[in-house]
């Protein structure tokens, strides 16, 4: 068996084209482009690269970006104040706080300063609750992108057993909630899980999100399983043993070119969602 590739690059391209059309229509109606504010604290090279890439993608789809760069010495209080000001600015539609922030900052407090209607990265407790309860709201971008990718390939989720390896608040936990909302049976695995191989072997769908190179071995997989590798490690290596897994799985995401493009595409789509929602709120009842 050779797994079929879940091509995130191709699916993201379609989503970006749709987002560009919506952004252009919004600009025509309102006289301004949707605006995403990016907040970067410190000078971490990888974070700087990610922010520049996101701003470049914004420009390509007609979304304006506002860069807010703060020194590494910024305090939690100063960061919260900055984000609160962006939340109150009617010209700002979405806010992205680049993760991670310096260790002395209370990242959760900073995330919670983002107004729910501008949390286009889906990082606040409000957004997590919306995902958990199936209520309207923004999805965490990587989990939401994963579901859109699975939908694009017609992969059925209802009634299937999904194993999520990882429990981070912006990836592992929310992707499990989104799968549960789609009537999958969800098992979370983590560093304390006994006999991880056996648990993974029961899965119809595996989502690997731990940040450990090739932790999930190909031999563990149920034949025909759907494998989503949300990990990215040095050397373009994911969290799944790709070659062995691709010989056993039914579908698999490549690294790179799988989950990553979907994450950015959903961030931009949700920025336009936020702009449209704010526009609608200003219309007379």
From TrEMBL:
One of its GO terms (biological process) is L-histidine biosynthetic process. SUPFAM superfamilies: Aminoacid dehydrogenase-like, N-terminal domain, NAD(P)-binding Rossmann-fold domains. One of its GO terms (molecular function) is methenyltetrahydrofolate cyclohydrolase activity. It comes from the Bacteria. Its EC number is 1.5.1.5, 3.5.4.9. Residues 140-277 form the Tetrahydrofolate dehydrogenase/cyclohydrolase NAD(P)-binding domain. The keyword NADP applies. This is Bifunctional protein FolD.
């Amino acid at each position: 068996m050779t797994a079929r590739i879940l091509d995130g690059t191709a699916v993201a391209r379609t989503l970006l084209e749709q987002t560009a059309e919506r952004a252009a229509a919004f600009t025509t109606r309102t006289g301004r482009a949707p605006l995403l504010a990016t907040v970067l604290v410190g000078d971490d090279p990888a974070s700087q690269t990610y922010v520049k890439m996101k701003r470049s993608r914004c420009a390509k789809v007609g979304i304006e970006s506002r860069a807010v760069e703060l020194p590494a010495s910024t305090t939690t209080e100063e960061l919260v104040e900055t984000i609160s000001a962006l939340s109150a600015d009617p010209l700002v539609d979405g806010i992205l706080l680049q993760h991670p922030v310096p260790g002395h900052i209370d990242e959760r407090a900073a995330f919670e300063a983002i107004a729910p209607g501008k949390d286009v990265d889906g990082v606040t407790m409000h957004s997590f609750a919306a995902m958990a309860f199936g209520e309207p709201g923004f999805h965490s971008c990587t989990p939401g992108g994963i579901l859109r990718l699975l939908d694009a390939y017609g992969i059925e989720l209802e009634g299937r057993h999904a194993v999520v390896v990882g429990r981070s608040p912006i990836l592992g936990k929310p992707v499990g909630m989104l799968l549960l909302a789609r009537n999958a049976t969800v098992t979370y695995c983590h560093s304390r899980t006994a006999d991880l191989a056996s648990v993974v072997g029961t899965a119809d769908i595996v989502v690997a999100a731990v940040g450990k190179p090739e932790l999930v071995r190909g031999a563990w997989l149920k034949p025909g399983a759907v494998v989503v590798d949300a990990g990215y490690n040095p050397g373009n290596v994911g969290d799944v043993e790709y070659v062995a897994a691709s010989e056993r799985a039914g579908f698999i995401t490549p690294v790179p070119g799988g989950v990553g493009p979907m994450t950015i595409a959903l961030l931009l789509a949700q920025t336009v969602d936020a702009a449209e929602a704010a526009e609608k709120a200003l219309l007379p009842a």
